[in-house]
Design a protein that fits this description.
By secondary structure, the chain is mainly α. It is built from 11 helices and no strands. It is elongated and about 60 Å long.
Length: about 200
């Protein structure tokens, strides 16, 4: 094969693009979509490869296992969530509506929410491949919730700031389950009410 043939051969072009960070990002995006649709256990590497328009072998050159892909997909989802949260935190949305605004898109897709929640529950097992990821994620979330913007960064007469953060995290997890059990019931307004009740002014 000549140098010119190598440059123009579609298979060669595909191989080159498969080695780029952009192609790796495409595979992670495909994994996120497959896991959201099928759940982690039923999502297959072949389905992910098909969605990313790469061969199964090419996928394995980027990710050695489905566990590795899961962690990459979780990290990607976390980055998207944090980007959304930063934009909302910087907006003029009232403090009590910040969290509900961040969660609204997630709650609008119950099937996907159910699959991601199943991963979070499974990861409570220390042997799960995503266990350490969720522990680190919890600590990052605690740091975000401790910001002054949400009114949870200061002690009140009834609750310390740390207790407020714990209750907010428990409230969010509980509302996720309640929304899945009864999709007809509006749950996010309850979170807004809760945030108003526990908020403490920065200068108090």
């Amino acid at each position: 094969m000549s140098a010119e043939d190598t440059r123009t051969d579609p298979r060669r072009t595909r191989g080159q693009s498969a080695s780029t960070p952009a192609r790796r990002a495409e595979i992670v995006h495909a994994a996120s979509a497959s896991i959201a649709e099928h759940g982690y256990e039923r999502a297959s590497l072949r389905d992910i490869a098909s969605r990313a328009n790469v061969t199964h072998a090419a996928l394995l050159r980027h990710f050695a296992s489905k566990d590795e892909l899961l962690l990459a997909a979780l990290a990607r989802r976390d980055e998207d969530d944090e980007d959304l949260a930063r934009r909302i935190m910087g907006s003029k949305v009232p403090a009590e509506q910040v969290l509900s605004s961040v969660l609204r898109e997630e709650f609008a897709h119950p099937d996907q929410q159910r699959n991601w929640l199943a991963i979070a529950v499974a990861a409570t097992n220390p042997e799960h491949p995503a266990h350490d990821f969720f522990i680190a994620r919890r600590e990052r979330l605690r740091a975000h919730l401790s910001s002054g913007r949400l009114g949870t960064a200061h002690d009140s007469e009834e609750l310390t700031a740390d207790e407020k953060v714990t209750m907010v995290m428990a409230m969010v997890d509980g509302l996720r389950i309640q929304a899945l059990l009864d999709p007809t019931r509006e749950t996010l307004p309850l979170l807004e009410t809760f945030m108003r009740l526990i908020a403490t002014a920065e200068n108090s």
